[in-house]
Inverse folding.
């Protein structure tokens, strides 16, 4: 494990592996760098992979108050560690953070897997007051309830499925990072409202961008990746057949390798 110090003094932990051009992996809600380790391993024969814990997770620090710009600065610190430029891959809400970073930082190419936008009526939007309720649950110490609230309202997991999950082996790990669900909710903003994506939010991004989606993902998610490609000036869409939001690293890695190598 290595560390960099972000602009606000927060320690950001990362693993570095492989050789070649730098690739920074930006994980999704609930994820720590350990959950991206298989993807990092598969990319490392071709790239120098920086697999990091986003702030508030794993071995990284956290500094209040939270702002999306602080997470962009964390990516900037990793890019500086990589020599001043890097490719970036963002998973789910980590992809939306990566889009924010691409507006400001020296990112050579950008790849994203299923940013979880809700751009139409093919699934319910987030309830009104979602972020406020999530903050209240986490600040009052009701971490388990915050996880359940996220899963049922943001991830769209049926409540009947969530109840038995609370006694499952991964529940405590999700509770450990429950406070960072507010961070991801802040990053998403109003892009899960059921309305079209904002026309200008990422209009300045002109770098080559690959948006990847799963062929068996729900309709709303497939519509979301198509909508994002339409909003970006230099983007293309790749559909991984047989995959959903829980994408297999061994199928995703070759797609990223091909894109970043050209």
């Amino acid at each position: 494990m290595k560390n960099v110090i972000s602009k606000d003094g927060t320690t950001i932990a990362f693993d570095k592996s492989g050789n070649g051009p730098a690739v920074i992996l930006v994980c999704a809600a609930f994820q720590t760098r350990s959950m991206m380790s298989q993807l990092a391993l598969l990319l490392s024969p071709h790239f120098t992979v920086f697999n990091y814990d986003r702030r508030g997770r794993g071995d990284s620090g956290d500094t209040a108050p939270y702002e999306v710009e602080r997470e962009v600065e964390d990516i900037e610190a990793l890019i500086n560690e990589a020599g001043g430029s890097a490719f970036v891959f963002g998973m789910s809400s980590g992809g939306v953070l990566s889009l924010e970073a691409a507006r400001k930082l020296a990112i050579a190419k950008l790849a994203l897997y299923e940013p979880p936008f809700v751009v139409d009526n093919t699934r319910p939007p987030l309830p009104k007051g979602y972020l406020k309720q999530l903050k209240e649950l986490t600040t009052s110490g009701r971490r388990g309830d915050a996880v359940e609230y996220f899963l049922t309202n943001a991830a769209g997991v049926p409540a009947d499925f969530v109840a038995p999950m609370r006694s499952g082996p991964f529940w405590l790990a999700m509770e450990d990072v429950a406070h960072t669900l507010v961070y991801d909710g802040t990053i998403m903003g109003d892009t899960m409202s059921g309305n079209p994506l904002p026309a200008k939010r990422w209009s300045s991004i002109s770098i080559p961008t690959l948006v990847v989606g799963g062929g068996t993902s729900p309709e709303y998610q497939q519509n979301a990746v198509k909508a994002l490609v339409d909003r970006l000036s230099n983007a293309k869409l790749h559909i991984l057949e047989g995959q959903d939001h829980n994408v297999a690293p061994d199928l995703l890695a070759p797609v990223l390798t091909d894109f970043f190598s050209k």
